Structure formats: C-alpha cells, structure tokens
Amino acid sequence: MTTIKQNDLIDSIADSLQFISYYHPQDFIQAINTAYEMEESKAAKDAMAQILVNSRMCAEGHRPICQDTGIVTVFIKVGMEVKWDAECSLEEMINIGVRRAYNHPDNKLRASILADPAGTRKNTGDNTPAVIHMEIVTGNQVEVQVAAKGGGSEAKSKFVMLNPSDDIVEWAVKTVPTMGAGWCPPGMLGIGIGGTAEKAMIMAKSALMEPIDIQQLKARGAQSTAEELRLEIYKRVNELGIGAQGLGGLTTVLDVKVKDYPTHAANKPVAMIPNCAATRHAHFVLDGKGPALQKPPNLDDWPAITWDVGASAKRINLDTVTAKDIQQWQLGETLLLSGKMLTGRDAAHKRLQQMLDNNEPLPEGVQFKNRFIYYVGPVDPVRSEIIGPAGPTTATRMDKFTETMLAKTGLIGMIGKAERGAIAIEAIKKHQAVYLMAVGGAAYLVSKAITAAKIIAFPELGMEAIHEFEVKDMPVTVAVDVMGNAIHQTGPKEWQQIILKKSNAQ
Ligand code: SF4
Questions:
Q1: Residue 309 — very low, low, confident or very high, per pLDDT cuts 50/70/90?
Q2: Residues 301-308, mean pLDDT to the nearest whole number
Q3: How far is residue 501's CA from residue 497's CA, in Å, rounded to a whole number?
Q4: Is a pLDDT exceeding 90 seen at residue 372?
Q5: Does residue 276 line the site of ligand 1, with CB under 6 A?
Q6: Contact status, residue 434 vs residue 454, Cβ threshold 8 Å
Q7: Cβ neighbours of residue 224 closer than 8 Å, sequence gap 6 or more
Q8: Ligand 1 test: best mutation among 72, 110, 153, most atoms within 8 Å of CB?
C-alpha cells in the first residue's frame, strides 16, 4: 500500500500547469522545426517561424505560449493499492492545483472558464473546474496526464456515427477542411474509434497525450489497423495543402493518433479532436515519495530561428491610415502595424451590436471611424509588462457582427486568427474593408509589439473588455482584401495542386 498526501497531488498539478503554460513538449518542438525546415510555402514557413520564436521566448520568459491558456483536462489513473492522506476529494485536490497554477503571481494565466454556459456565462475567475477523467487501475501509484486545451482547437472537435461499411479515412479527409484554420495548424489529430459516442470522444482526447512519433511509425511500418489509419490519414490530410494557419503549405498535421475500442455491430463511432500550435500536456507519477515536479528542458533544444520581416514588409501608421489607403493592400502581403487600435471579442461585440441596434451611443472613447479592431482576449500583465500574451482569437466567431460593425461604425479593418466565413467576406467586400490575420499561437511574440494598453469600455468583461492598444511594428498578413479575395481559400487550393504535381512526378 502506498500513501499519497493531498499536497503532493496539489503541488504536482499546479507545477505541471505552470510548466506547460510556457514550455512546449520537446517532441512538438522537434516536429514543428522539421516541418518548418521542409516547408516551401513562404506564408506557412513564416507562420511556423513565428510559432517557434514565440515558443523560445516563452521558455525563456516563463510566460504563456498563447493568450488562451486553455481548459484544464486531466486523465488520472489511481492504483487500487493507493491510500490517500487527504481531506479533500480527488476532484477538489485537482481544482486546488488548477486555482493555484492559474493565479501564480509570477505567471498569472488567463481565466477562461465560464460557469452557466447556456445562461449567464460567468467567469469562475480561476480557471476551475478542470475536466477530469478518473480510472481505477491495479498497482500502487497514481499516474496523471494534464493538458491545457485551447478553446479554438477544441471548438473544431468532430464526432460522427458512421455506418459500419463507411470509410474512416474518407470521412477524416472530407472533415478536416470543414474545420478551417481556427484550430491553429500545424498540430495533431486525436482520433477515437469504437466503443460508444462518449467513449470515442474520450479516446480522441486521450490520444493527444501521446508523443509525436509518426516519422518512426513511417520508418518501421504499420502493425495494426489503427497504425495503418494513422499513416493514411496523416498522408491524405497533409495532401490537402491547408498548411500552417490555413495559409496553404506542405504541413497541416504533425501527427495523427488513433485509439480504438470494441463497438456494437450496428455502430462505427468516430471522434476527431485537433490539438493546436499551443499543444500543452505534461505527465507525472505519484508513488508516495513526495510531489512529482517537472524537469525544465534544456533551452538549447529550441532551434535557433530568427524571424525578421522588417525589410520586406509594408509599414502602416494606424493613426493616419484611410479607407482609400487600404485599397492598395495586396492579398498575402505582410504589414507591420504601428499606432492605435481597439480590441474586442465575443462578449464586447454582442454588447456593441445591441447598442448599435438600439441607436444608443457607444461608450466614451469607443470610436471606430477609420480604425481597426483586434479580436483578442489578452492575459493580464505581470511585473513590468504592458500586457500579457495577446495573440488573435478565431475571427469567424465575429462574422455575424461584421456587417453591423462595418455599416454603422466606420470601422475599416479587423485583425484576427484564421479564415472569415461567407457573410463576413461579403460584408468586407461591400464596405471595401480588409481583414488582417495574425498568427495564432504566437501570443507572447505579438504582445512584445504592444507598447501601451488600457481598458476603455466594459471592464466587467475581464479579458473580453475593450482595450485600446498602441502597437509598434505588429506583424499581420492581408487575409481578405477589399475585393473579398481570401487567402484561406486561395492558399490551400494552390498548395493542394503543388502537392499533387509533386506526387505525380515521383
Ligand atoms: S494556438 Fe490557437 S487554438 Fe491553440 S490555444 Fe492558442 S489561439 Fe487557441
């Protein structure tokens, strides 16, 4: 019998969550660096360079890889010979660890969890509760896998109940393009096959905790149906040409993980969950000898990549730019933005829309004429920071507000992550506006371009409040131009053809 103390679990959970907020797993760094080196699409290579530079900065600065510091997901296996020296339940111990990690004074993480999800959606303030999957197993130790899963990638999770004769590869290849780029590729796909609906989803999520090893699998060859599926889906999805951030390129997925379980003769449940550029998970084992703390990696393991677009990019002064100027901006062009911009995401847009619909004046200082809005929910600053990590959030969630914002406020542009949907593109074209894309998963790097920040409206919305940012050389790409051309449509199409030609030539 092993005795595990309450504080050993709490300390280990808190330590692992702090650790994964700023250290990417080594296998992920190696895989993305290999993809970066192989990439031939300039836009995708650029995006991966930003992700790698951001990763190193976070490892050095101990600040979050992404402004979305995730929803905590824990897989815990408790040995039957374990005795607890604890007053709290297992669930309470884990949540104390989460609370402590997310409120760490040196590296405060963003509170993103909302209670009453179908109603008031009130922030719990400390990122609790975690989503916990418990299992009782044989043995005398406690094995824990902790992940901080990004909301953007979680939003693209898929489930289907296929007919037994249906082809899983075809379903995956047809489904990945429908996920757009809001899951911040390149990343991983976790696939769960079999069991029941909920079993397939849990397997898909737990598959994402496994190390990236597709190249080793390729070298040794598949030895099971699950491994055959991994190789086939990996190949076919990368042939889609979606690329990093959906800009078109050679690598969309770094690995595909498959878990399976026996199922009913009438069913073929399949779940697919992507993991993003902010892949964050840690594992530890408690054996009664104290907390299991993570070992810091060697920073030399990060590739020595520098990213400097200074010479080739167009510099834009946001304080003087006009609706006429933006007509000249070319699709795919890199811009370096300087000057003032406003921020806003889901909750702020909902309020702005209500005010505009009711012909109410907008809050003082919220003036959009000839200005840009940045879709972001930043991490709070610590120490002397102006703002914490502040990368873009998924722009499609703001699509339904775009027509009103462009028609009624004089806004001329938006900055966000990934593609825009049809209604937003139509509004952009109609109002001759633009949509600019920043790299998702490069949040700390982006925050270094912010030279001043203040909340100017809706402070009660926390990270969703409207801020005014002053930026200096913030890098963005023209993703939808004034004509309504969209790089997330043209890029993948072009790269799918290039990849096809390459494979025909082999
Ligand atoms: S990398 Fe993208 S999907 Fe992942 S947490 Fe950050 S913004 Fe969300």
A1: confident
A2: 85
A3: 6
A4: yes
A5: yes
A6: no
A7: none
A8: 153
Q: How far is CA 269 from the centre of its chain?
A: 26
Residues 6+ apart with CB under 8 A from 33: 52, 303, 305
Is 274 close to ligand 1, i.e. is its CB under 6 Å away? no
Q: Does residue 186 have a cis bond before it (omega within 30 degrees)?
A: yes
3-state secondary structure 98-166: HHHHHCCCCCCCCCCCEECCCCCCEECCCCCCCEEEEEEECCCCEEEEEEEECHHHHCCCEEEEECCCC
Own/partner pairs for 428-433, CB < 8 Å, 24+ apart? 428/402, 428/480, 428/482, 428/484, 429/482, 429/483, 429/484, 430/403, 430/406, 431/406, 431/407, 432/323, 432/326, 432/327, 432/482, 433/323, 433/326, 433/406, 433/482
Q: Are 22 and 58 in contact (CB under 8 A)?
A: yes
Verify whether ligand 1 is closer than 6 Å to residue 152 (CB atom). yes
- Mean pLDDT value of segment 117-122: 94
SS3 content of the chain, % helix, strand, coil (to 5): 35, 25, 40
For residue 183, the CA-to-ligand 1 centroid distance in Å is 6
Tell me the per-residue pLDDT of 36-95, one tens digit each, with 9 for 90 and over: 999 999 999 999 999 999 999 999 999 999 999 999 999 999 999 999 999 999 999 999
Q: Is 265 helix (H, G, I), strand (E, B) or coil?
A: coil
The overall pTM is greater than 0.85: yes
Please indicate whether residue 154, judged by its CB atom, sits closer than 6 Å to ligand 1: no
Q: With a 6 A CB cut-off, is 66 part of the ligand 1 pocket?
A: yes
User: pLDDT value at position 505?
Assistant: 87
**pLDDT 10s digits, 463-504:** 999 999 999 999 999 999 999 999 999 999 999 999 999 888
CA 136 to centroid of ligand 1, rounded, Å: 32
